[in-house]
Amino acid sequence: MSTPSRRILAAALACAACTGGTKDSSTDSTRATTPAAARTVAGTRIASPHAGPAGEWQMPAGDYSNSRYSELATITPANAPSLHVSWTFSTGVLRGHEGQPLVIANTMYIVTPYPNVAYAIDLAQEGQPLKWKFRPENAQQAVGRACCDVVNRGAAFANGKIFYNLLDGHTVAVDAASGRQVWRTKMGDLARGETITMAPIVVKNKVLVGSSGGEMGVRGWIAALDVATGKQVWRAYNVGPDRDVKVGPKFKTFYAHDRGKDLGQTTWPGDTWKTGGGAVWGWLSYDPELNLVYHGTSNPGPWNQDQRLGDNKWTAAILARDADTGEMVWAVQTSPHDLWDYDAVNENILVDLPIKGRTRKVLVHFDRNGFEYTIDRATGEIILAEPFVPMNWADGIDLSTGRPKARPEKMPAQGKKVTDICPSLEGGKNQQPAAFSPQTGLFYVPTNNLCMDFESRHVAYIAGTPFIGANAPEKGGPGGYRGEFMAWDATTGKKVWGIREPYPVWGGALVTAGGVVFYGTLDGWFKAADARTGKVLWKFKVGSGVVGNPVTYTGPDGKQYVAIYAGIGGDMGLLIAGDVAANLPYDVRQRGTTLPDLSRWTSWGGYLFVFSL
Amino acid sequence: MKPAVVWRMCAFIAAAHAAQACTDSSAAQAGTGTQTARSGYSDGGDSLRMLAHDENLPVGFPMSGKPLELRNPYEGDKRAAGIGAQLFIAYNCIDCHGADGAGAMGPTFQDGRWHFGGSAGAVFESIYQGRPDGMPSWGGRITNDQIWMLTAYVRSLATVDLSTENFSGQTIERTGH
Predict the structure, then answer these.
(1) pLDDT at B42 over 60
(2) CA-CA 20 to 30 A from A279: which of A14, A457, A537, B149?
(3) How many other CB atoms are found less than 10 A from the CB of residue B58?
(4) What's the pTM?
(5) Prediction ipTM score
(6) Chain A residues inside the 8 Å CB shell of B133
């Protein structure tokens, strides 16, 4: 927890930047009802508007910018302590509930972890009955081919259809009114370990989807499907020759070392790129003005670095692609020749920020490698890169090249055991998405504080089996806490306040115009905090650990509701928590050593909790 | 390969393919193969046991004579189990089932509980033919001898009773609110 003096300073800083308000807004009890636009920090803007009416949640992150910001302002720091449960729903599945519901026209849409059942819930009737449920064909084999629990990060909505991915590598379109399948397209090959867990987005009548399987030696890709037919419009691989990765005339990337012919192939020994990973299992964002889609790519395969000497482009990278064609426009490889399983798939949040007297169109990214990157989203220039968690593997990021200055003593090699690398392979942050509020100009970031030892060994590629070749036990990071929910200023690269948690904060954030930020914890607390000060206003112990992301909507009764999944799992539940491993209910396991008592505080679950005043 | 192993494999194929591939098992020929193949999923034991249930056959059918059973030629052979431990790493079993079989994306072997049967024959089958939750089929990709050594290793891993977890006095410092 941050000190009181630090919080006062934080509030003062936040308000010094406020414009439009006639007085100090932190003491104005009526501010919840004033127009939000009047109270944004000067020069601060979310790049694209909230999708649909303010009272709906039509996209995974609420908008194309991945802001997870809502204009709803009924719930405020003053009244948040009186939040209570309105209703609940059991999803019927006990595995990791990452992702979030959608809310469109008084209907809530939920996609469960495998077997990826979709539910349409009627919010307009007492008792929230189902309108329909959709149970897709979904190959059981996928359960054992998914590295990190059988999660699904949510659905997209457009043109009266719900689009989502199945763990077994299919993308489906379902009629939002009837629940009938409209089309189904096979995108991944389970035999080669390709699964799909990410939430698609719809851009200009195309559904954008990407592959999982960075631990299985896949060749990662992102693809666009026609919303009406499901036919593939384009597919771009992230490793391989320029033709396949769609590097061509539009590629004008910022750093010289990223320019050259077929770098996605020549930065690998021999044919190793063919099993080189670079999957797209995280969040997508889109800038309508630049017509660019932004996505990260996963770790290279295998983890054993000695089997893939070179930069291993374009793995562990942030890529900007033309939304119409998939052509790459710029690339920032956050971890060239990644040695630590630092995927770059975390969300890219698109905002305009005042930096050194100028308004910059930026992309803000909290990387697994522990650095926050503030990047010019038109050019790929790194404006700022600062560590946001305890980090000891690098001496910083060289802004003249964009490359990290890695410390030799933290660099693994086959036959050498490296100890105490921070952050661990789970990253300073993982899939749990951050939120941004234009009112405070701050990012709200769920983080991990873990470290690891790393020992690599030779591994053979065997299709459909893990392609890892390393052992990397994890432990708590310095300071005696294992996670922190923090407010972060991406114009300076500094933390403003933080709430320390006993476990990694593996669920996402939501921030509202009411000045309240919401998040859940692995040990099952759902919390509301003051967005300006970080003061915890309210908390409720939900039925299972939270790895999902809160959303907010206006109900048919005009009230503001906040919804969150409770269902521990994902990589945290599966690989670390031992006994609460979510994948296999028939397993009885030793307690995990990284989070030794987590199973005391929570157990499997699969719930939706909905709260209101 | 020893003739006995050939015969045992034949019985296994019979179980997997509903009596199509094997000619030296009259019970399998008689059409109980499907039932046989499924029995291993429910009884937690040897999936081939049902082959011997001649009383299930219509009167007049030829009797099978003796039960079919897969026996590990390396049962109790520590050296073979040691080679199995190396194969467990070489064939990437370790990254699914965890170091020492502690469990990861695939099930643990330390709990002594077997979803598809824990007898040597059932474990052999699981490795040979794969299992529906994603366990790949290794039959024909590695040798049967290697599968038996893996079987010996995997079956040696259940060493502690994990039934009860008692939390008293075991908690880390809680720094949150």
Answers:
(1) no
(2) A457
(3) 7
(4) 0.88
(5) 0.86
(6) 140-141, 143-144, 584
